[in-house]
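Input record (one chain):
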Amino acid sequence: MTALTNTEDKLAGFAAGGVDYVTKPIQHAEVLARVEVHLTLRRLQRALAEANQGLEEKVKERTAELEALKAQLERENRYLREEVQGRLPKAGPVGRSPAFMALMERVDAVAASSVSVLVLGESGVGKELVAQQIHLRSPRKAGPLVKVNCASVPRELFESEFFGHVKGAFTGAHRDREGRFALADGGTLFLDEVGEIPLELQSKLLRVLQEREYERVGDHETRRVDVRVVAATNRDLKAEVAAGRFREDLYYRLGVFPIEVPPLRARREDVVPLAELFLGQAAAGRPELALDAAGQAALTAYEWPGNVRELQNVVERAVIISRGARLEVEKALGSSLAPALVPPPRPGSDEGRILTVDQLRTLERDNMVRALDAADWKVSGPDGAAARLGMKPTTLQSRMKALDVQRPGRAHP
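The corresponding structure, as predicted from the sequence alone:
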């Protein structure tokens, strides 16, 4: 309270810590009004402080979410870079047969263009390697090479896998995601097992091939893309078209330049060079292993129904089971052809029924390697080696360690 009328005296009062004043003689209405003003100011200050605190907490939460998302995106980008890089061959194509030379002439003829290529051939002939060579010999070689295994994509996720989606487009879409076409922009998209694409999605694939544009799932924005498509299949797509399971217009759009990859039995001159390549890759820690003339003859004489993939598996299996400097391909081929390691017993005799401990160990080891080969060395899961062998994954891993079974060039799974 003050009876002062001088402004400087009032300012001095504020400087001393006062926040307001009332004049004499006191008027109750003035006092109540000033008290109400300060109560309101106090409430506003408290509300502002609480709002600021809540805002700071939200900023911290959002910052943490952004950091987590950034880390996840970095992991995904690193995975994709490693995935793409890992698919690029460490060496050039291997072969010297007339069929192989004719194949590479076709690759060279189409590589410089941007037309779609349809790679045909039996399972295991190396269709993905042909796609790699088309990419590496093209003007797009500095861009990405992205693969989609159409046979492994769930039917309901095909569109999202190809074109991507926006957050909230469907249950589980917690954030925006780029599709394979966007990831392959400026490069090559390899559609493996293209015959497995659902009929209802084929029209959208045809559109992006023709118009070079698409929309993400849940998004109305049209995006442009510059991608060269190389597709592969072991199916007879003409028969699929006739059966109504594959669009005729998509077949002709993909098959602008078809390339047929011959089976390995049609280019036997390539068997030994390929085997030596796989041996060098699988026996990195065992330089003494060598493929002798007898082994070369055995490999060349075999029909290779599983083609190059089977040859690679046989060489890797031979590296595992060989104990000396000689690559025992005959034994690896034998375990591939028939599971029995011992001849059948003669009638009326028990000979051949009793196995030594070492024979049992070899039998178990070879059977385990066959199961791992069939499962692409995946231990667990419905298609894993453990399920094929009827045992728990932990049991299989324990037996693999006990029998020193490991994928050539890799540590234990």
